[in-house]
Each structure stands twice: as structure tokens, then as C-alpha cells.
Predict the 3D structure of the following.
Amino acid sequence: MKEVLRLLRPYQWVKNGFVFVGFLFARAWHDPDLTLSVVLAALAFCLVSSSVYILNDLADRERDRSDSRKGNRPLAAGTVRPGLAVAVMIPVGIAGLVLGACVSSFILGLLLVYAAQNVLYTYWLRQVAILDVFSIASGFMLRVLVGTVGVGIPPSKWLLLCAIMLALFLGFAKRRAELLRIGDAADPPRPSLQHYRVETLDVFIGVTAAATLVTYAMYTVDAKTVQFHQTEALIYTVPVVTYGLFRYLFLLHLQDVGEDTAADLPRDPHMLVAILVWLASVLLVLS
């Protein structure tokens, strides 16, 4: 059971925090029904994303065996057989779809799009440089849409742009960390890595980091935001976001962090404090 749980990668569920972005900035926590809908939507995404991780591990199990970091995954290490993995993947995925459908048919549709997009990613898109990262970023955009349009919260265009830029930033940072780890390996764990160069990825990372900061700052000063929240104080959360981005860049360049954000971030107290301070600041301003 421990190995089956590892197969689901529950530590990656932190990525589904993107589902709560619209909920947070819409101050929807005062509505119990809406709160329940968002929580169920996030749980649905957790289940569907876990089934996708199993599919990815099934497709990569032979290649992962020769990878120093991924070789200990249950399927690659042989601690879970492929038949059992399929027997877990199907009901977990169906449970997530059913749970999403219980919230709204729109969420069901978005979850199906997410599943289809990840099938394409597993068997094709991840082989194409740049398009592979855009495919990953689209998954984060779907998470935001599930937590907004899917439950009846009108999304902010600036927040949508910020989410996609942040996802691209993290995706290119992941590719940079992977590229540095494998060095000049003749057979990289991801086919697209042979088309990347560190210098090029640094440009992509710089552009998307700046775009993330600018789009978030634009959201805080947008007239619709100020009118909706009846305050201009959200702009004071921008320095915290700036620090968080700079800290992540520091870790990426000087401590070889970035290949697995969900696992790396909890290990850095500075990032944890920055995230908590940002969340507390937003709640204080919006309350």
C-alpha cells in the first residue's frame, strides 16, 4: 500500500492549489456552498492528476530505470507491477471525473481536456522543445479555470495571464534543472532536452519571471480589482511576490533546485515564509 500511495504522488497535489486562486481573490470563503464546490473540484483534480502520473510512469518505466533520480519510482523499481498500476489508475481517474461531474458539467469537461492533453503530452508533446513546456503550463491554466469558471467565479484576465506566465516560468526552470543534471548524456530522459541549451532557457526563464511579476502587479492596480475589493492595498503584496521569484531564481542557479518544485519548495524555509507571508497579506487586505 505504501508503494501504491507513492505511485499516486500525493506530494504533487500541492500544484492543485491553483484551483483556489479564483476562490481566494473572489473572497468566496464567506459562501459555504461555493467553498464546498471549490474543495470538491480540487479533490477531483487531485484524483485525475494522480491517474495521469501513473500513465506517465507506465510509459516511462523502462527509461526511468536508467535515471538516477527517477529510478526509485515504484514502476521503474519494480515494487509495483504494471497490472496493479493500471488497476489503480482507472478507478482513481474515474472517481475524479465523477467527483468533478458532481460539481458541474463544465468541470467534467475541463478534467477530460486535462486528461486528453496529458495523453498527448506523454506520447508526443513532450518530445517537442518549447511545446512541451506550454503543454505543462496549459494544465495549470485548466486548474485555474476549474476553480473559477467551473464553479461560477468570473476569472480576472490579469490573474489568468499571471498563472500561465508562472507556469511557463516553472516549466522552463524544470527543463534547466534537468538539463544540468544529465550533462552531456547521449540518451536524455526527455527527448526534448537534446534541443535545449542552458543559455536559451535562461532567456525564457527571465522573460516569464518578469511577465509573472508584471501581470500580478497589473492585477493589483487594475481599476476592476480596486473597485471589486474596495481597496488599493493589494499592491503592497507585490514586494513579497518579487522576493519569492528572486529567491526561486537564486535556488535555481546556485543550489540546483527546480527539477521538482513540489518536492523542492518545502525544503527551503525562505520560500515557505514568503508564500505564507503573501497568503496572510492577501487575506488581511481582502478581509
